[in-house]
Each structure stands twice: as structure tokens, then as C-alpha cells.
């Protein structure tokens, strides 16, 4: 019995290391889970605190913006204007711009003015029922009550140019000026006078446009800034003067022969008398003609073209040279003298002077 117990004890000792390994691994896994849970909860708490910390200023600013918008809605800010206007004595208000004149180009954009219906005017005699019914002016519906006078009566809503007749009809007042119709007892209203003037102006404008159309028929024209008509005359390019003159010049290799003199040669009285009669006179005239022809031939044989000397003066005479500059033109040569400094050994003072003068800027000759 003792031997069997001893064997069981040995077997239990051999199995203990494996069980210990599994037990240690399980304990480590449980410990890692606990630590991860703690870290997760800690990070969650920190994130919540960070979010609350960031949300607070955003919520405050949003609430302040909403409240200020409500306040501004109730109390609208107005422009205080120019507070220092009275202090600035040089400030002057700008003048109002003049409206643009209506020209031909903008006539299509000008709104038309509707004409008012003519007002019927009754003559001096008592009107009949038909005429009185037809001469009544339709009244517009009254929207505002008539103003009352001090004694409580309603004032009449008639215009300044209308009066109420004895039969309750509307009669226009007499015009400012009286014409033939006024002499005959017919009242001329201001509307009729203005209508007559408009008709006269429209008639003159229509006549002018018709006359202008007849004159411009088949011709090109345009308008200027003021609406005036400008005729466009096309020029014929074939009749324009030549833009380049090329005269015909002929060069002869030899002088042209002198044409024979036309008519009878003149004879001087002295040669005619010394030659003796007709024979002497004719001989003297022939010698003179030959000498004149020979002189003319020699003059034509001489070259008439001469090379023109240049009118520009020489550079050696006109250009001023700086020190250290030598100018050569053709065979001539001219020097400006030795420089006051040596380029190999130049002090700071000489360099500053050289930079300030025209020598350093390249303005000198050469």
C-alpha cells in the first residue's frame, strides 16, 4: 500500500510544472484584460473632459452671437455720418450731374407719356339733358376723405383750373391768354393749347424726317454724338494722286546732235558790212552758227552730275573727348589726353570720383 501511494505522489509531482504553466498563462491573460479595461476607461474619461473643454467656448460664442443678432434686430445701427465735416474747411459738396440730352440713339429707350383725355367744355348757353349727360367727366373713385374746413364743411376737391357752373357742371377756367376763340366766347384750356403745340411740333418733325428721307435716299449716312446726320462720301481711289513719283529719265551714251537752226540766222551789221555784200554777210553768219553749235555740244558733253560733299561735320572737329580716349576717323586721329589716374593703381578717392563723374557712367566720348 505504501508503494502505491509513493507512485501516485511521484506522478503528481511530474504533472505540477505543466499545470503551473497553464495557471500562470491564465493569470497573465486576466491581468492584461484588467489593465486594458482600466486604460480604456481612463482614455474615455480624458476624451470626455477634452470634448467638454472644447465645447464650452464654442457654445458660449454661439450663444453670444445669437443674442447679439437679436439685439441688432431690435436696435438697428445707423450711419453716424461725417463727424468731422465741420472741421474740414476744404471739403465742398459735389455739384449734381446734369442729365444727358436725348439724342437720336436714345429716343427708342425714352418712355412715352400717355396723353390725358380731352375735357369737354360747355358753351355759354344752358345745356340740354343729352349734352349735359354727355359732357360730364367721369370721376375717379375717391380713396381719401375730403379735408374739412374750420367750420366743419368739406372743401371741394376740384382742381385749380376747374369751377362748378350754375347747373353743377364742371367748367374750365379761362386761359391766361385770349385768342380768336376767346373773342368768340369759346374758352381755350391749357390742355388744348399744349395739345396744339405738341401737334405742331410732331407735324414739323414728321415733315423734317420725310424731307430727310427723300434727300438721303440711296446715299450712305451716319449720325454724330448730337444726333445730326452726316453724309458719307466714298472717294474713288483711281482718281487719287500717285503716292510715288517716278519721272521718265533717259540717259544717252553720247551727246545728242544739235538740231539745225530754224529760220534765217541773224547777221550783225558790222559783219555784214565787212564781208562785202551778200556773200560776206552769209559767210559771217555761217561761222557764228557753227561756233554756237560747237559750244552747245561741248556744254552738253560735260558731265552735269557732281558728287555732293557730306554736309555733316567731321567727328574729329565736333566731338569732345575725355581724358584717356583716342578717336580715329579715316586717316585722322585725335586724343583726349592722358588720364589723371592709373587704372592699375587707383585709390578709393579716385574711384569714388570716377564713379560720380560721367567717366564711370559711360557718358564720355568713345
UniProtKB/TrEMBL annotation:
Extent of Pro residues compositional bias: 254-263
Record-linked InterPro entries: DUF4639 (IPR028042)
Biased composition, class Basic and acidic residues, residue ranges: 175-184, 193-208, 328-353
Region Disordered: start-end pairs: 100-208, 249-301, 326-366
Bias-annotated ranges (Low complexity): 117-143
The protein, known as: Uncharacterized protein
Compositionally biased tracts (Gly residues): 273-285
Amino acid at each position: 500500500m505504501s508503494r502505491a501511494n509513493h507512485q501516485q505522489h511521484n506522478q503528481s509531482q511530474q504533472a505540477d510544472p505543466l499545470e503551473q504553466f497553464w495557471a500562470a498563462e491564465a493569470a497573465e491573460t486576466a491581468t492584461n484584460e484588467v489593465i486594458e479595461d482600466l486604460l480604456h476607461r481612463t482614455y474615455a474619461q480624458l476624451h470626455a473632459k477634452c470634448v467638454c473643454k472644447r465645447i464650452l467656448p464654442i457654445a458660449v460664442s454661439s450663444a453670444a452671437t445669437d443674442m447679439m443678432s437679436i439685439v441688432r434686430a431690435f436696435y438697428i445701427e445707423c450711419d453716424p455720418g461725417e463727424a468731422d465735416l465741420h472741421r474740414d474747411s476744404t471739403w465742398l459738396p459735389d455739384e449734381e450731374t446734369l442729365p444727358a440730352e436725348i439724342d437720336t440713339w436714345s429716343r427708342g429707350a425714352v418712355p412715352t407719356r400717355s396723353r390725358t383725355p380731352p375735357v369737354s367744355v360747355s358753351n355759354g348757353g344752358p345745356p340740354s339733358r343729352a349734352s349735359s349727360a354727355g359732357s360730364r367727366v367721369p370721376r375717379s373713385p375717391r380713396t381719401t376723405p375730403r379735408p374739412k374746413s374750420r367750420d366743419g364743411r368739406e372743401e371741394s376737391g376740384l382742381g385749380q383750373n376747374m369751377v362748378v357752373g350754375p347747373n353743377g357742371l364742371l367748367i374750365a377756367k379761362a386761359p391766361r391768354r385770349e385768342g380768336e376763340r376767346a373773342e368768340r366766347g369759346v374758352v381755350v384750356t391749357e390742355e388744348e393749347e399744349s395739345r396744339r403745340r405738341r401737334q405742331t411740333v410732331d407735324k414739323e418733325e414728321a415733315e423734317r424726317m420725310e424731307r430727310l428721307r427723300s434727300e438721303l435716299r440711296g446715299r450712305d449716312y451716319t449720325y454724330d454724338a448730337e444726333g445730326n446726320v452726316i453724309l458719307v462720301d466714298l472717294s474713288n481711289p483711281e482718281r487719287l494722286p500717285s503716292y510715288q513719283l517716278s519721272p521718265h529719265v533717259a540717259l544717252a551714251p553720247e551727246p545728242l546732235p544739235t538740231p539745225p537752226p530754224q529760220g534765217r540766222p541773224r547777221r550783225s551789221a558790222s559783219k555784214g558790212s565787212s564781208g562785202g555784200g551778200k556773200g560776206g554777210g552769209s559767210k559771217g553768219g555761217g561761222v557764228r552758227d557753227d561756233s554756237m553749235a560747237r559750244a552747245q555740244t561741248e556744254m552738253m558733253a560735260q558731265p552735269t552730275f557732281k558728287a555732293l560733299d557730306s554736309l555733316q561735320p567731321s567727328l574729329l572737329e565736333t566731338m569732345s573727348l575725355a581724358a584717356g580716349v583716342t578717336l580715329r576717323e579715316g586717316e585722322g586721329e585725335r586724343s583726349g589726353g592722358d588720364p589723371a589716374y592709373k587704372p592699375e593703381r587707383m585709390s578709393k578717392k579716385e574711384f569714388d570720383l570716377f564713379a560720380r563723374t560721367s567717366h564711370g557712367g559711360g557718358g564720355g566720348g568713345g
